[in-house]
Amino acid sequence: MKEKEQSQLIHLAEDLKSHVIGQDDAVDKIAKAIRRNRVGLGTPNRPIGSFLFVGPTGVGKTELSKQLAIELFGSADSMIRFDMSEYMEKHSVAKLVGAPPGYVGYDEAGQLTEKVRRNPYSLILLDEVEKAHPDVMHMFLQVLDDGRLTDGQGRTVSFKDAIIIMTSNAGTGKAEASVGFGAAREGRTNSVLGELGNFFSPEFMNRFDGIIEFKALSKDNLLQIVELMLADVNKRLSSNNIHLDVTDKVKEKLVDLGYDPKMGARPLRRTIQDYIEDAITDYYLENPSEKNLKAVMTSKGNIQIKSAKKAEVKTSEKEV
């Protein structure tokens, strides 16, 4: 093992937690499994790691997958994502591995096998896997077991250098009370693990290195996510030498505007776009010489962008 990879594995959990908020238990379990496999304690020729992520929408399942791809393979482009609701038909297997000789589409490469053949160091993300056809599920059992697939043209494609993550919302409907920061604050963590047997066979679930449950996000978690998103806004603004300061009141307002119990933190990015980025754009186009900006709340509960130097000056709507 190279020194760089050794250091990477030592700090894997810590690095992931700096990007994925409120899911420390999930991160720890994944990091331990990957570390075990990379030092040779995993089953030979199987993927580097295989995980089933379960839990409500918008709590970090896809984000953790993306950050894993960045940490282990160097780029978010190493993540190959499939929406399994598009593979509900029996013939979907042929879409993934390619049609056999004599069938329509034989000359078209499999959507899964060709990507992995060309980029063996990949993270494969299968979203909402419970929606896939049983034949598709059976095909992935082979990947989890043997670490390889044969494509439509008879070539063997190895998955031993890949990570396979499947996500599922299965069972979260019965644990609805655990969704939302009220639930997180009160410690309600209705587990969905007991519901998975209604959707997946024991044979299927036993193939994974880990079944990872994601928790509801607390308000503090959401504020931390807003901080990360605003840091990204500032990073992009820096190309024009602009800096934005945001008051705590504005951050709390963004959480209130952008949190949806059914969608988790997912709408937050759009909220920041609508209430921060659009407001910055309007202000900057009219005041191109102003480089230090501040987002404040007015007494009427609106978010306003101002010059940081003038932020203390009272306007027709007093800041709070």
UniProtKB/TrEMBL annotation:
Keywords: ATP-binding, Chaperone, Hydrolase, Nucleotide-binding, Protease. The keyword ATP-binding applies. The keyword Oxidoreductase does not apply. It comes from the Bacteria. SMART domains: AAA, ClpB_D2-small. Residues 217-305 form the Clp ATPase C-terminal domain. One of its GO terms (cellular component) is cytoplasm. It holds the Pfam family ClpB_D2-small. GO terms for molecular function: ATP binding; ATP hydrolysis activity; peptidase activity. Coiled coil: none annotated. Residues 47-218 form the AAA+ ATPase domain. GO terms for biological process: cellular response to heat; proteolysis. This is ATP-dependent Clp protease, ATP-binding subunit ClpE. The lineage of its organism: Bacteria, Bacillati, Bacillota, Bacilli, Lactobacillales.
